[in-house]
């Protein structure tokens, strides 16, 4: 088997429309397709993250919250490559999104910071 790249990442939101606005308006994702699945009472949106990855955004009624802090097992965070972490932090702050203090990855020497989506999902900006 050969795996070439990550095709998509799936996120279940507590409020689909709020999260869709966040990923589109704050992170610049582009809506590719959107469907309401009546039988599941569930939205599914496909959002392009640049040219290489898709974020599948779902809603499900009564989905339980997933713990992320303290460091829970499972997916730790989603990381987004940006050309300039400091500039991205400034843009996020202007939109009311708080970020941790930027720091340097001790192994790569690249700038990075963390912030959260509307449901508290940990997200990272990583200087590409």
UniProtKB/TrEMBL annotation:
The keyword Metal-binding applies. InterPro entries: Fosfomycin_Res_Enzymes, Glyas_Bleomycin-R_OHBP_Dase, Glyas_Fos-R_dOase_dom, VOC_core, YwkD-like_dom. One of its GO terms (molecular function) is metal ion binding. Keywords: Metal-binding. Residues 5-128 form the VOC domain. PANTHER family: FOSFOMYCIN RESISTANCE PROTEIN FOSX, LYASE, PUTATIVE-RELATED-RELATED. This is VOC domain-containing protein. It comes from Nakamurella endophytica.
